[in-house]
Design goal:
Blueprint: H1 8-32, H2 35-60, H3 68-88, H4 94-99, H5 114-137, H6 144-163, H7 165-168, E1 174-175, E2 179-180, E3 183-184, H8 188-213, H9 216-233, H10 238-264, E4 266-267, H11 274-287, H12 292-312, H13 317-331, H14 335-347
Antiparallel strand pairs: 1-4, 2-3
Helix pairs in contact: 1-8, 2-8, 2-10, 2-11, 2-12, 3-5, 3-10, 5-10, 8-10, 9-10, 11-12, 11-14, 12-13, 12-14
């Protein structure tokens, strides 16, 4: 007998939940939250964009990516370089003056063009991921070895940024951004517009990623995760599938980094290293790495928990955050979303 088709209520449940969340994010949150809290929510949603890419690569593809901070940083620095050059108005950015740089480095020159800078926000991370993925996956590097490699890449990237004081701002990174496309970043209206842009982009990326997961490519990606050698035996190339997925995940991280700069007002090596990359993976695990919505939920929950714990328990918030992770993983190995789905099944 053919499988029973889901009822119309089941088919409409997903779109209804998405529409409800969209209304809450686009209409309710800007009306109820004060500018400071709305800015924090925008930061959580920026991280949710990175988490969405991690869920695609790790949850669907089985690639534990521990170095997304690299791609996040490439996108963030591309945007930061454009903003600093805009404010310099043909001169040198302030940190270069303090560092004794006399002429603008050739690497910075193209980023004065907004179209080039915005393109490099995505092109830079995707290109690096394609090169790295081609080299690594062709050699059939996977599992813990791939995770360690991406983690080492993040550590090396931070060392490189810190060592180039006159080029990258060193430890301090790039900060003091005042204007974005002619809009004053200090105004509440500008920050509200940025928040809405983040929500819209996250929603579009979620729908696009969901469509990709439900496509033939998505099914092939899951097959590679569950049995790479079997997929290769059937005539497919797992290396190509994994490389493309890795590049898509990197592009999302780069786009998130570009949003992070005007939303938070800084991009520095401290935000891009091993620890921040691990925190993003933990957030995806807490929300549920096998579901795209779980990754978004985990990023928001962990971001909010980090803020609350640091405000209430400044000396021990890291322990509380770790305890939250252990508690969720112990009671719900598939994350918060998996726990909610299991409770629904029990209730039936």
């Amino acid at each position: 007998m053919p499988p029973e088709r889901p009822s119309w209520r089941t088919r409409l449940r997903g779109p209804a939940v998405f529409a409800a969340v969209a209304v809450l994010a686009l209409v309710v949150a800007p009306l109820l939250l004060e500018p400071f809290r709305l800015g924090l929510l925008a930061k959580y949603l920026v991280y949710a964009i990175v988490a969405l890419g991690i869920a695609l690569a790790w949850g669907q593809g089985g690639m534990l990516v521990l170095g997304q901070g690299v791609f996040f940083g490439l996108g963030g620095y591309a945007m930061g370089m454009y903003l600093k050059l805009t404010e310099a108005q043909g001169g040198l950015p302030d940190f270069m003056v303090w560092s004794g740089v006399e002429t603008l480095p050739a690497l910075w020159t193209p980023f004065a063009n907004p179209f080039f800078a915005l393109a490099m926000v995505v092109v830079g991370p995707v290109a690096l991921a394609l090169v790295l993925g081609t080299l690594v996956f062709r050699q059939r590097v996977r599992g813990a070895y791939f995770a360690i490699l991406t983690q080492a890449l993040a550590a090396a990237f931070v060392i490189l940024l810190i060592g180039q004081q006159g080029l990258t701002g060193g430890t301090n990174g790039l900060t003091n951004f005042f204007e974005l496309f002619g809009q004053d970043l200090a105004l509440d209206s500008t920050q509200r517009g940025l928040y809405l842009a983040v929500v819209v982009v996250l929603g579009l990326l979620y729908l696009g990623t969901r469509q990709l997961v439900n496509s033939r490519f998505g099914r092939l990606l899951v097959a590679v995760r569950d049995g790479e050698d079997r997929v290769r035996f059937l005539g497919y190339d797992p290396a190509t599938v994994k490389t493309v997925t890795f590049a898509i995940s990197a592009g999302m991280a780069g786009l998130a980094g570009a949003f992070f700069v005007p939303v938070v007002g800084i991009i520095s090596p401290a935000l891009l290293g091993v620890v921040p990359s691990l925190e993003l993976v933990v957030a995806v695990a807490v929300g549920g790495r096998y579901a795209l919505a779980g990754a978004v939920l985990g990023a928001v929950v962990m971001g909010y928990a980090k803020t609350i714990f640091s405000e209430q328990f400044a000396g021990g918030w890291l322990y509380l955050q770790g305890a939250l992770f252990i508690l969720v993983m112990t009671l719900a190995p598939k994350g918060l979303l998996g726990l909610l789905r299991r409770r629904k099944e029990v209730a039936r």
